[in-house]
Structures are given as C-alpha cells and as structure tokens.
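Hi there,

I know you've been waiting on this one. I reran it after we fixed the sequence typo, so this is the corrected version. Both the input and the resulting structure follow.
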Amino acid sequence: MTSANTILFVTRSLGHGGAERQLMTLARGLHARGVTVHVAQFYEQGDFGRELRDAGVPLISLGKGGRWDVLSFLRRLRRLIVTLRPSVVHSYLVEPNWMTTLLKPTLRGPAFVWGVRASDMEFERYGRVAQASFALSRGLSRFADLIIANSRAGAHFHTSHGYPEDRMLVIPNGIDTAYFHPRPESRSAVRQALGLPDGTPLVGVVGRLDPMKDHQTFLAAASSVHGARPDVHFICVGRGDAATTSRLQDTARSLGLGQHVHWQDQWSDLPSLYSGLDLLVSSSAFGEGFPNVVAEAMACGTACVVTDVGDSADVVGDTGLVVPRRDPGALAQGIAALMARLPASAQARDRIVSNFGIDALVERTMNALAPFGGARA
C-alpha cells in the first residue's frame, strides 16, 4: 500500500549545485501546492537543506558512511520507504537513481521516477567508479517507471546510451525569478568587494572548477579580450580541488592575467553577483543539460555568452550569443561582441520569466507524476 499524493525525493546531498537547487525549488513548490513531500539525502550537508526545513518540508539524513556503505544504507533507505509509504520515489542523479531502483523488487506500490540532469558526459574523465556507476544505471534504467530529463540534449544523450525512450520525459528547470531579479545597486558593491573602481568592466564564470566547465578555454579567451581591453576584469566563482585550483591559477598568471582574474570559492548572494556582472560566460565543454547559472543570470538581467553544449542555446535564445565549445578564439569574439552591445535590455529576464519560471516546473512535474498518484493537489 502507498500513501497517495506523497513524494519521497532521494539525493546525495543538498550542498551547492544546480541539481540541488532545482530539487529544493521543486520540493518547496510542490509543498506549497499541498503535495506531501519528504526529502532524503545520503549525506547531511548544505544550505538548501536549511531552506527546505524553513519551508516546512521534512528532511531526512540517511547517514551514508561513504562510497562502500551500500548494503546497510539500502536497508535504511528501504525502511524509510516502508515507513513513509510514498506513491512516488523520485531520485536525482546517477547514484541515487540506480540505488533506489535496486529496492524495487522488495517493495510494493511506489513508482520509481528518475531525474537525469546531464548531457554528453565524458565519464572517462572521472575514473572507473563513475564509469561503472553510469553503466549500472544504464542497465537498471528499464526498471524506472518514468525518467525526467531537464533538457532535450540530456534526453537524447541518455536514450542514445540505452535508456528507454518510451519512459523519457523532458521538463526544463524552473528559476525563482522573485529571488533572482535585477539589483542595480550591486554593480558598485561587487566591484568594491573585489577592490575595483566602480566603472570596471567585469566578466564572470560561475561553476565548480571541473573539466566539464572548461575554465582553460575561458582563461585563454580572457587573455585575448584583455589584450584588446586591458580595463576588463574577470571573476571565477566556484570550488575545486587544490590541484585543479592551483593549475588554473598558474594558467591565469602565465597568460598575464594574474591581477585581472579574481578567484572566489563561493559568493553568498548570487543575485547580487549576477547583477554586478557586465556579462556572464558559460564555457562548458560537455555535460551541461539545462545550465542553471545562465538562466539565473538572465533572470537578473545579465547578458550571457554560452558554448553550444546541452540546451544552452535554447535557454539564451536571441538574448545573448552562442559559440562553439573548446574554441577560445570564438569565445573571445563572443565576449567582445556582447560587451559592445551592453548594457543588456530586459529581454534576458523576460525570456526566463516567460519560459522557465517555478510555476511551469511545478505544474509540469505534477502532471507527470499524477498517473502514479504522486502529485494531486
């Protein structure tokens, strides 16, 4: 037996990240519509968890003891599902997807819905464990009752790797446009925080320091832009391991950008950061599905230059520029061309409000889960 109109989300953690923010946004939106929502995380961490609790959404930590804590973890997860009796178990990302589905033969009632967020992944860059995990998810995907991708590119990538096409559905991400909105006063505040004069042109990249995000191409493009416009400064916001961070900072110095690239592990108020930029760059080489940072920046009225990865071009539309991936020259030209058109108009924000708001995300998800009894208001 299941408890109708009850959804259990399962994810690794609720730390910083696009998928984590989307889960939090969706769970809060469903909760506000009267759907009973619980969120279980492998590891207890992250600001988004606190936001869920503040919204009244129950948050459960499964206390996973590390990569090899599997059997005892699955017992705890099964016990939770039996206790809550959800009509839908909705997992997010590769490992939670296949781990929850391993329990399907032992449970009666709930539908198992997967959330896939990436496209065009290069798993060989992340070691054998990541490759094995994806291979396992590919084999188990036929047991999922529904698979929700957040991009058309992601749906195509997964079906081309063996995921069942007849159970694949695309629901784009939703952006909280009440939170992500233009803050003109932030231009001065951001530059002051970086020790820059008020009029300094500022170009930013927001994302973890990871091969997927291709900061090497961004830095090479920044060097070309700097050669023509020595007044332009650049900011990279995102965490990386010590070796990657050091290597990228060394690259910046070798390109003569040492004093013109500012490195920040995080920025506590992202709408202020986005509003303070002249433009945002997404230089990703692979892996993007729906690029949250692009949509968030656009909702703040900031123009974007993106590489043609995932659904980035669909998100930007005609409000920014799209360039080929792994092409520093094209990216530099795109940055220079878009800067020549600044300041940005309201078109970027209007595009997000009209196409990618929270209400659309929640409504589409409720319609998708309604056949399983998981989202009836």
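Quick highlight: The chain has a mean pLDDT of 93.

Best,
R. S.
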